[in-house]
Amino acid sequence: MKQKNYYIIDFDSTFTQVEALDELARISLKDNPKREAVYEQIEGFTNQAMNGSMSFSDSLAARVKLLEADKTHLKKLVTHLKKKVSKSFSRNAAFFKKHADEVLIVSGGFKEFITPVVKKFHIKKENIYANTFVFNADGKIIGYDATNPLSKEGGKVILIRDLNLQGNLYGIGDGYSDFQLRESGLIKKFFAYTENISRKSVTAKADHVTPSFDEFLYLNKLPGAISYPKNRIHCVVIGSVSSKELQPFLDEGFTVHLEKEIDEKIFRQASMLLLAPDAIIDAQKIKKAARLKTIGLPGKAKNIIPTSLYTELGIVVFGNGKTTAQTIQRMIDFINKGSISDSYNFPKLQLPEVKSTHRIIHIHKNLPGAIAGVNLLLAQHQINIRSQFLMTNELAGYAIIDIDKDYDRQLLKELKKTEHTIKTRVLY
């Protein structure tokens, strides 16, 4: 019989973008004249525990002592944390509803703020394992339940051992206490979660480093909100572009490589290429980048490669006269939605974002029978087509096909082999 899978997920800096006790300190100590010094102390204790250089129990005791917080502060914290759920967890809310029996939140944080934050994700109360505060008659935090194993060093190991879950256990977290589960042999694999923070002492020992929950789902062949993790979309930048201008790429979750760190392997992995006005690139290098889907040529960037070559390779080009910011946004819109209305080598096509479907982009030579072959294949796979768009120019056809998410992934392999195909991909 197939073994059940359990997903043991950390809360602070994993499920949420922040460390909750640090945020609680900023709320409770707002009017304290020495607040900055206290903030620094609390953050220091947090980092020492997460890196494994201080015992968790000592760190927790020191932080709680410095909080000066009460129930009114906790209420404000919950409101704040609901807005700080990690982006990739938020967009995969459907996963938690479907796997409510298998998802456990295991945290050295506190139920008083964890339970109300994860409630809308259908995570069961009985599957939330965390510490609890002790209050005085006025509602002020005066301590915590020291008998809870999660308040102690190695608490997660103690808890999971006592739960004696039968099946495959996967741990997801950013801190040393999460890695201890792997070290103890209690879990099958440990995924170091780096969407919000990356700790070398943790990532160096992990089975996998996952920059997003999308990546975790993808690696484990679990259904997710997007078909391909954004962190696997590599953007190569050649020439002088400011970090401020590149921020939209980072905000989207793409992996950005600057010219000084680019080697042949990175270039071959690139899906996006941004060429600054001072950059020059030759055709042979472009031809070697088999995954390249879009190129940005902002401002008066030099283009020594014939436009027809880009088209023949299925590469959509933006820019030439547009600012860097405008060019980057058009590249992002192409990757996210398939929009090519501002491209100068493909026909005009403005599209809405993908919602409840997967969007297939099929670029092909503009020859008779090309799109007919695509539709025949879709029919053979009994695919339900939600919508379809097609535009052509003298060299290429650009087809957009929105289909239900439930389909055999073999379809994508066969699409690439249909006659006259240049390039195809599925939008997340």
TrEMBL record:
It catalyses: O-phospho-L-serine + H2O = L-serine + phosphate; O-phospho-D-serine + H2O = D-serine + phosphate. GO terms for biological process: L-serine biosynthetic process. Keywords: Amino-acid biosynthesis, Hydrolase, Magnesium, Metal-binding, Serine biosynthesis. InterPro entries: ACT-like_dom_sf, ACT_dom, AHAS_small-like_ACT, HAD-like_SerB, HAD-like_sf, HAD_sf. One of its GO terms (molecular function) is L-phosphoserine phosphatase activity. Pathway: Amino-acid biosynthesis; L-serine biosynthesis; L-serine from 3-phospho-D-glycerate: step 3/3. Residues 359-428 form the ACT domain. Its cofactor is Mg(2+). CDD domains: ACT_3PGDH (cd04901). SUPFAM superfamilies: ACT-like, HAD-like. It is an enzyme of class 3 (hydrolase). One of its GO terms (cellular component) is cytoplasm. It holds the Pfam family HAD. Its EC number is 3.1.3.3. PANTHER family: PHOSPHOSERINE PHOSPHATASE. This is phosphoserine phosphatase. The lineage of its organism: Bacteria, Pseudomonadati, Bacteroidota, Chitinophagia, Chitinophagales.
